[in-house]
Amino acid sequence: DGPEFFLAFPINSPHFSGQELSRTVTTNWGVVVGELVSPGTNDLPPVTQYLGIPYGSAPVSSDRFNMVKSAPKWTHSTKETKTLSPSCVQTGLPELSETKAMKLMSSQRFDFVHRILPKLKIQSEDCLYMNIFVPERLQTMTKLSVLVLVHGDEYGWGAGGPFNGTTLASYGQIIVVTINYRLGAFGFLGRCESSSCRGNEGMSDIVSALTMLRGIIDAFGGDLSNISLMGWGSGASLISLLMASPITAPNQRLFRRAILLDGTALAPWAMAEDPQGAFLDLAAKLHCVTPATKKAPTTLFNGGIDEVIKCMQDHSADNITRIAQSIHAPSFLTSFGPIIDGQLVPNKPTILFSPQFGNLFREVDLMVGTASFPSHHLLGDDELKNGMAAEKRDKMIRTLVRNLYKFHRNEIMAAIMNEYTDWSNPKESSRALRDSVLSILTDSLYVAPLIRTLRAHSSDETSRNSKTFFFHFGHETRSWSAEQANSGIRGSFSGDHIPYLLGYPLTRKDNEDKLYNGFDADDRGLSRVMMTYLANFVKSGDPQTPTKIGKHTGMEEVFSRVAWPQYNQMNREAYLEIGVNRDNPALVKNYYRNAHVGFWSGLVPQLHAEGREGVTVPEEHHLLPDYFKTESFYGRVRPFGGRANLPIPPPPMPPTPPTMVKPTQRECSETDTTLIPISWRCFKRMNDCLSLTVAVGCGLLFLNICIFFGMYRMCPNNHRGKKKLQLQYQTYSAGQNPDVQYSINSPLAPLPPPPPPSSDHSASLLIDDLPHHTTNGVVCGSLPRSNGNSHYSRGTVSSHTYTTHHHHHLNNNGNAHHHHHEQEPLLSASQKTSIAGIRAGVSPTCPRHGRTAIANAAASRGNSLASGATLGGSTLGREGHIGFAPPPSSIPIEEIQSPHTHTFAQFL
């Protein structure tokens, strides 16, 4: 149930002393004294309001048109905060004359302007103050969540002071904060030089207020990690930009949640249409630039901005306000508004909100709300009551198309007329024409941008913990709609949801501040529901928890039975429809105005595509009929050709896109139904990229072929070298070249003799202990060596007698013939395991059977030559020949014959 608190005494009771009506809080900036007040109904706890707490220094003199500086501390004094501060200078107030105003706005908007105007009369440049409303806590140990209201409607007028937050703070048990920020030319004087842009001073005021609030809110019992922002109109647009601004996340986000009401930075009116032109007009009318400079401003915008700013700082605030009020933007657009400055707004909102670069934007929980006709105030009172003629309808649509689009205006105009014509009744009445204009302005300026914002925030391409909710507030306040009972317009109008969210229907008439009035019992029940949703979202990010909706009235009981789902593709873009049907005021629906949203977000951007690159389109093609006749348009139009080519630096590159999670099949099947804009320039760029890729690939292929053929030509040379070497070994072993002469650098050169053995242990080694390796039928053993005039006499050995044995021995099944010379066998014939000499087909460099291995084995037996081994050892022949008796199992080898006598070492 909703919170209930009953006071023992009313606030205005004489039992309360002056001291009891005051509250003192010590903050990091200093001591503040607030006042305890009643929220306007006795069943809610009282609220302490601290009005006029400064958060920024007065932006006057040299600080005008610059970023705000923090307010100085008052640690050695006490500040009374019981009265509202002045409002910021209003440079864009609507028309106040009733006769003229009724032709430009609705009677509801005119009445609201005149109700808020008395609270805006006191204006000053020293206006950077905040107001804090702190309720008496029902749970003293719980820190309170914080909601900051960013007032809106338009960038040129408004203030935070006129909106009372006591009822919402008391009922929702949250701290409510309202702030002022600089407006119009004082807060959004955009100017760009060749390297940078400036002009978002009003946004810097909001950031400064949030920074100070995080430093002092703990002293008021607030939770600095649970701050939310809520705004409507232009205030909602500023909040959406702050959601994606890196300046709000230096170490920890300055706010955690956001509520946008009929406003987003994706709206056509959200960003300044021509900031350079508006700056130049203001400077020229203040005589800070010469007429010649205004005609040719290139030099000015390449380095002369500071001198112009100094000149404008010397003027009075009244003079700047008077001049700024004479500068009008084209209809439906903005002259003094946010710009891309690279700091607060680092890039275009479409990029900042996109799934690829919108991480900061999607970190914040988001709730979006809209009225049935948020563009209601843009039509004159007479058209709203009696309908609109076809000629007036055409003028308004022509003005909308001319000011919002640059290319293919005739095609866009025809598409709009076709989309919003009731073909079941082509001869539409004046009221039907009025309704179509209301729908066109609502969808193009508010609904389609809001849905695009919701879809960007609820994108499932990245893993995140933020939540997205959407509601359509369609409740009609009967006292407000009584004036137009016969107009035929059903639903809510511009700003109708604001008093319900702030709790105005619950305030007593004798304590009402007259900003909103005329509510009945159903309105009060709906206001409790809306405040419960809002307070829950501020506390948890979910409008349904932690507090359940009470059942005090029938209206509340209906809402208590309805579950509000999140807005995403999985839930088919579900939203909560509030108060459209009096009998069933709470309904969950899907795809709000989806057909019209698809038209404005899909088809119109495709029609507006610039065209195929390289194809020249005459400029007249993009002009509407009677383009230069002012009477064929409504309001102010964008000038033909625009301004001179003023140098505006491009926005900085977006951050590196994060790793995306591939959407599931179900998500893919339920994706956005809007069409993707296509242009011939995109195709041209794709063709260029494809051609470049093919060319690079062909080049790399040709390079690889060249390298392959080069390596292939090198491979046969190496192969022939290997063949030649193998042939040399085969010829050598087969006796075709008996006289082999080794060169010093030859790979076959004999190795130097090994050193003599250090012990007699190696003398016992036998030749057969050396293993024999065979490769492809060739025994890897020792080749015979020649020294000096030594020569070899060989027989012929049949190659088919070579077989591979388990112990790598050769069998003697073949018939081999060799010549015997007179010599004494060095080994006994009974020694069957020993082999003498170097075998045929064996490399001399073989580490196991070559000359080194035989030399080591022979050297170990050198000391026993003289005495003669009785066990079949080696002996020296009569002619000094060294011989080995071959084992029976070995292949017969040739005898070694030398005409000279050599020692064993000399032989090697």
TrEMBL record:
The chain crosses the membrane at residues 690-712. Residues 803-820 have a biased composition (Basic residues). It comes from the Eukaryota. Residues 749-758 have a biased composition (Pro residues). Residues 784-799 have a biased composition (Polar residues). InterPro entries: AB_hydrolase_fold, CarbesteraseB, Neuroligin/BSAL. Residues 740-762, 783-828 are annotated as: Disordered. Keywords: Membrane, Transmembrane, Transmembrane helix. Residues 23-600 form the Carboxylesterase type B domain. The keyword Hydrolase does not apply. It holds the Pfam family COesterase. Belongs to the type-B carboxylesterase/lipase family. This is Carboxylesterase type B domain-containing protein. It comes from Pristionchus fissidentatus. The lineage of its organism: Eukaryota, Metazoa, Ecdysozoa, Nematoda, Chromadorea.
